[in-house]
Structure formats: C-alpha cells, structure tokens
Amino acid sequence: MNGVMNGVVKKKKDLVVQGCFVHSVGNVSMLVQEEMVMGIQDGRIVFFDNKDKLNALLKSFEMNKENFISLERNQFIVPGFIDSHAHAPQYTFMGSGGDLPLLPWLQKYTFPAETRIDTDKTFSRDVYEKCVRAFIGKVNMDINSPENYIETREESVKATHRFLEDILSRKNPLLTPCITPRFAVSCSNELMVDLAKIAKEKSLPIQTHISENRDEVKMIASMFPEAKNYTDVYDRAGLLNDTTILAHGVYLTDEELQVIAQRGSGISHCPNSNFSLKSGILDVRKVWEAGVKIGLGTDFAGGHSPTMLDAIRRGVTAANVLYFSQQPDHQATVDPITYKDIFKLATLGSAQVLGISDVVGNFEVGKQFDALLIDPDVKHSSLDVFSTDTREDIIQKFLFLGDDRNILKVFVNGSQVV
C-alpha cells in the first residue's frame, strides 16, 4: 500500500535484491535458488530471474540500483512466516498454565484471562499493543461457558456486527476480520447458522477449532447426536467453505477429511499446543493425501512460544514421534515428513489456508514482497557456520538453531519494517 503524506500519495521506492532465495513452489517443499535477482515495485515482485540478466531487467522495468541489496555469502531470503492460528488474549499467560488438558485448561486459565481482556480496557490495550494479528475475530460463545463470560445468541450476533463494522471502517488492507465461533462445544447450532450467514453475506473468512482432543470429540457426539461427526456439525451449519480455517484436526476421520477437502477448507497444524495440552499428534501426511490445505500455527497460549521457528521445530518432532509410534519396529515403508515440508507449512501452506496465497507465501512474480533476510553469521548468534557447511546445512541450522538475532531485515509488502 502506498504511503500518504499531507494528502499526497508517496510512491514506494523500487527495490532490487540479489542473492539466494529459499521458498516453496508447487509440490516442491523447499526450493533453493542461488545467484538470483529480484525486482520489487510498489511492494510487488515484478521480476525474479538469474543475476546475469540483471541489466536487461533493470532496463525493461525502468529501474536502477538506487535501492539495491546484494546478499553476503551465507545470507539468504525466505518468505515471511505466517502464523495461521493464535490467540492474542492468551498472550498474557503464555509460558504458564500448561498443567491441564484442553477443556479444564480453558476453564482455569483461558476464560478468566479473556474475561479480563473484555472488561478491562487498560489491560486490553497493554496486551494488544504487544500482540498484533492481521486476521482477527470476535469470539462467539452462547452455551457451555462461564456465567461471567457468555452471551445470548442475540447478543453474540449484535456484537459480531459491531466488531465487523469497526474493523471494516478502518479500510486497512493488512487487517482482515474473521467470523469466529470458538468451537461447537460453546456455540449453539442456531448461533453457528447465524454466523455462517454473516460470513457469506460479507464474504469473510471463518476460523474455529475442530477435533483437538478426544474428550472434546466425545462431547460433540453427545451434544449433536443427529450429526455424523464433528465435521458434519459445522457442515450442517454452513460453516465449511474455501475460506474456513480449522485449528488442530488431530482426530479427524478419513470421511471427515474428504468432506473438508470437498468444501475447500484448511487445517492449521499447531504442534506445540498439541504437545503442551496433551491433545495428540496430527498426521500431516494423511491430511496432505486427502487433498486438504494445511498450514502451521503457534496457537499460543496453548503452545508456549509465539515464534514460528518453534512451530517448525515442534512440527518436525511431532512428525518423528508419529513415525515411531506407528512403526514400533522402525521398519516404516514411508518416510516421515521433513523440515522442508514443515517449512512449506509455515509459508506457502499457511498462505493457502488463510486464502492469501495469491498475494504472499512464496516469491512468484506478482506477489507482495513479504520476506525475511537471514544472516547466519551475526555475532552472538546461537548458531555457527563452518567452511564445510553446504547451503542446505546453513538453512537447516537456521531453522533449528536460529532466532531473531539472525533475522537481519523484515519486509512487509515491499517495505522494510525491521
């Protein structure tokens, strides 16, 4: 988006970047492209080609080297990581309160924290200044909730309309309101139907939880005996479409995955939270093979880290644990998914789940330049690079050992923000 100063549109500077780029393309989970050059105009990638074509490209796009970045030997650029599921109000107790499974945890920690957010504006402002999400929703709950943190169906619908009017009035292209029934445990069927209608009328994405742990799945079966399964509850209410984001999905059956694929909905894989709340392990390969979109999420404070690097690491661990648990004799015929696959979930996969893969997620021409410039050689870093390391070694070291000290620059829509 162009900046505006004193009523005059301020055009972004052109940017040219030369070096190594790492991203996901199609079925390739991690494509490493060395000695490339990229041109960015008005925040979008206009060319991406071999560096020996630089002069011709600059001439063709009427660009120059006024704003030129040439990466050093071990540096590389990756797409900005995309967290497809997190809870801003829970940021207050992240890193604590991990002693219970999901349903008791909600009662003891989550609902009290969210109630205070809802009633204490000073506290709320403090939280949201430290934790910002580009996709944000007003949580809806009209059943099975604490007396001091529950709405009637009518109150929930009215509050949702007020929330949407406020967010949409800001006209910020980087801020998207979502329809957010917490999950079917705390939403009546009537409310879910109302919310589905609002989402359809206003063409808004939907986010909710599904099949996070076994007790939750059992509770849904008893609450909705007319439904075939958990997925069917949402499907009957009209909540499943190609903009729906379903968090967790640990215990989805093959039949449920087939329906989710048919509706075009996506799953946010949250391995840290699944471990921390003792929920279970999602079989990512099974989701992939069912043709369901899947991305990666931190799900703090169910998970105890807000960083996507942690989500990547936990995702690899989850895949390995699942591999061994399914093949106790270690004679598996199918290899576990790798760090490259999880990298894809953190970038292009999450973009697909959020419905923004036409805008961000990798470095295809026409997309916004959302990116991280990684420097493995910064002083006092938690990783070291040696002369024997290949490029793939260095990338892997960053994903498993790196932290914010290795992120030299952050670009959003072509503008350097860090």
UniProtKB/TrEMBL annotation:
Keyword tags: Hydrolase, Metal-binding, Zinc
Pfam families: Amidohydro_1 (PF01979)
Family matches, as Gene3D superfamilies: Metal-dependent hydrolases, Urease, subunit C, domain 1
GO cellular component: cytosol
Cofactor(s), by name: Zn(2+)
Residue stretches making up the Amidohydrolase-related domain: 132-417
Molecular-function annotations in GO: guanine deaminase activity; zinc ion binding
Record-level GO BP terms: guanine metabolic process
PANTHER family, alphabetized: GUANINE DEAMINASE
Name assigned to this protein: Guanine deaminase-like
Lineage, top ranks: Eukaryota, Metazoa, Spiralia, Lophotrochozoa, Mollusca
